[in-house]
Specification:
Elements (H helix, E strand, L loop, with lengths): L1 E5 L2 E5 L1 H14 L12 H9 L5 H4 L18 H15 L4 H22 L6 H27 L8 E2 L2 E2 L5 H24 L23 E4 L5 E4 L8 E11 L6 H10 L3 E9 L1
Parallel strand pairs: 6-8
Antiparallel strand pairs: 1-2, 2-7, 3-4, 5-6, 7-8
């Protein structure tokens, strides 16, 4: 769940709706500088599905420690660990390539969580969380290796987070390109949906398979359009929308009251635009 403060309301966007917005961006991705996804429509479907595990939370959203609707970037590890695995396994129902892309994306999220956890105070609770994280990472690695095997990709050469490490070939270059495209569209969608995106969350697509990654610079202008440089889309500007529900911008004293407000809130649509910087 994404929580966005707008006036006296919290706009709440489900992770699946954010992912579908990312899928819209993926379908428009590609121009003279940036290649289109190698896997075509399967990549678009993977982008659409990359957060399909999130209904485990978003169907009954939680509150944070202050009583506000819990934002995705505040989510407890006990919430996100099963969601990562559920997202990967559900995407595999589309097909092995879509499933592999989502599994690799979830693995990268787990690696970031592991780097953050390295700063935790060492106590019994942190050891338990690390053990839980290790279990999820092992499950994701096994899932990714199974899908790689089904696709005829190497599983007997060095891999790091499911990707070729210290070697490459055309298939691996294509896989990396499609994964970075998924992550780029995911990040751009977050920049559209969120109040604040954590520092360091910057889209870095490849221009084409085998080429170096390029950092996209993003910023909101005075009209609230998201400006992007270099421009990766095939159209001159991109108008998009995402559904949301609004609840009062308040600290709730009852989870039941919040969930009732959320369930009763009508579905609205937020409009957004992306333009070249």
């Amino acid at each position: 769940m994404i929580r966005k403060r707008v006036g006296d309301e919290f706009w709440l966007i489900t992770q699946r709706d954010h992912a579908h917005l990312a899928g819209t961006l993926a379908r428009a991705f590609g121009n003279r500088q940036f290649a289109k996804p190698v896997g075509g429509d399967v990549v678009h479907a993977a982008v659409d599905a990359h957060d399909d595990g999130w209904p485990l939370h978003d169907d009954a959203p939680a509150l944070d420690a202050t009583g506000r609707p819990m934002d995705v970037f505040e989510s407890l590890r006990s919430i996100v660990h099963p969601i990562w695995l559920a997202s990967a396994t559900r995407a595999a129902e589309i097909g092995p390539y879509a499933g592999l892309l989502v599994a690799l994306h979830q693995l990268s999220l787990s690696a970031h969580a592991a780097s953050v956890a390295a700063n935790d105070k060492i106590d019994d609770e942190s050891r338990r969380r690390q053990f839980d994280l290790n279990k999820i990472q092992h499950a994701l690695i096994e899932h990714a290796e199974s899908l790689r095997s089904r696709l005829g990709l190497a599983i007997d050469r060095p891999l790091r987070l499911g990707l070729a490490d210290g070697w490459s070939n055309a298939a691996e270059d294509n896989l990396k390109f499609d994964l970075r495209l998924l992550q780029t569209c995911d990040t751009l969608s977050l920049h559209l949906c969120c109040d604040h995106v954590p520092a360091g969350l910057i889209p870095n697509p490849h221009t084409r398979p085998g080429a170096a990654q390029v950092q996209l610079h993003v910023a909101h202008d005075a009209s609230h359009a998201l400006r992007v440089r270099p421009w990766p889309f095939e159209v001159e500007s991109l108008h998009v929308s995402v559904p949301y529900r609004a609840v009062p911008a308040m600290a709730y004293d009852s989870l039941e009251r919040f969930q009732a407000d959320y369930a009763a809130a009508p579905l609205r649509t937020a409009e957004a635009v992306l333009r070249p910087a």
